[in-house]
Design brief:
This protein is α+β, with helices and mostly antiparallel strands and about 260 residues long. It is built from 6 helices and 11 strands. The strands form 2 sheets. It has an 8-stranded mixed sheet with strand order 1-8-11-5-6-7-3-2. Strands 4-10-9 form a 3-stranded mixed sheet, with no helix packed on it.
């Protein structure tokens, strides 16, 4: 199985007209679909109804948990833009109603919703090892698909195409350079690690820092496991591709 189970994964699905369902500017409430059921995505995943049930029960808006499923911008745990008032599954997917906060980030998100700058929503989650299986189907290019029956849902995010440098980190690295992106992620990990070591702040703050650290570690792993794009290889199939030297990248990262 190719899935990285114990990692912070992100997923944006093309929901078409269902991506943003409604916006009530007066009450600052926005309704949306965060995920679709029974549709194969670019990861060859098909999420089944019931996959979010346990997370909603344990950490949804109606739970007693102080680590509720968060409503973020760009998967950034330092940018909560409000809170979920409702999370439920229906026949289409994971439906959500959220209220935008009066913070500057919440105000910016409201303006971006109005101007249709925010056009998609994405989830941050973890695969559950015994709740995923590969179903063979030789009619598919990948030889089959992954049936996802449960995930641990961390957050739902409002996203703009290409806006978050850490969301599609591999694509960004193609244009900015692997060492540059690796350095940015490394610096962020160091800062958050020091904050966690101090142990200062509320449980909610420490939880947010912990989740962001998980997210950054997963993005660094994405960078390591994906070979950078070599445009010269497109010129001729005879061009020999040199193996990428990750030791050189790690050595050049400034500590």
């Amino acid at each position: 199985m190719d899935k990285i189970i114990n990692s912070y994964s992100i997923k944006t699905q093309d929901m078409g007209i269902f991506a943003l369902k409604d916006l009530d500017e007066g009450s600052r409430k926005v309704s949306m679909y965060l995920s679709a059921f029974d549709k194969m995505d670019s990861d060859s995943d098909i999420i089944r109804r019931g996959a979010f049930k346990k997370s909603i029960l344990e950490r949804g808006p109606g739970s007693s948990s102080n680590r509720k499923i968060a409503f973020l911008r760009f998967h950034n745990w330092e940018k909560p833009i409000g809170k979920f008032l409702e999370l439920r599954e229906d026949e289409k997917g994971l439906y959500a109603v959220a209220q935008l906060s009066n913070s500057s980030d919440g105000m910016d998100a409201l303006a971006d919703y109005k101007d249709e700058i925010i056009r998609e929503h994405s989830i941050g989650f973890r695969y559950i090892k015994d709740k995923i299986k590969f179903v063979e189907d030789m009619n598919l290019e990948a030889g089959g698909y992954y049936e996802i029956n449960e995930v641990a849902l961390f957050e739902g995010s409002a996203v703009t195409f290409g806006a978050n440098e850490f969301t599609n980190v591999v694509d960004v690295a193609k244009s900015e350079g692997v060492e540059s992106i690796a350095q940015k992620i490394h610096d962020e990990i160091n800062i958050i690690g020091k904050s966690l070591s101090s142990g200062k702040g509320t449980d909610e703050r420490l939880h947010s820092l912990e989740m962001k650290l998980k997210f950054l570690n997963a993005r660094f792993f994405d960078l390591v496991k994906t070979e950078p794009f070599n445009k010269n290889a497109l010129k001729s199939e005879s061009v020999e591709k040199s193996p990428f030297d990750w030791n050189k990248v790690i050595t050049n990262i400034k500590i």
